[in-house]
Amino acid sequence: MNLARRMGATALLLTLPLGLTACGGGKPSKEEVQAGYAKLLESNGGGQIPKAQIDSIAKCVTDKAYDNVSGDTLDKIAKGENARADNDDVSKLTGYAGQCSSDAFKKSAP
Length: 110
Known about the structure:
It is a single chain. This protein is mainly α and about 110 residues long. It has helices spanning about 5-15, 30-45, 50-65, 70-80, 85-110. The radius of gyration is 13 Å and the shape is globular. It starts with a helix and ends with a helix. Residues about 20-25 have low confidence and may be disordered.
């Protein structure tokens, strides 16, 4: 699969888990959010994304999103839930995912 197709597929996979209404509690730690995001990528990636890239993307998205999206959304990510998030949060996460997946694939390209 060429790089452009992989990046496009990855960006889509990154946003699928969060397309669903926010409710819930407080703000989990960055480590919990990163682990949950990696879990979502692994479960939705169908083996298409190498583990090193999943970890890189999860860290990047978490770093960008942690102070910019709601605690409810972060809690859902940390729990690895395929649950609806606030539309504004989904929009932000989509942008972060696109940036981070592009960066991850550029770093891994020969």
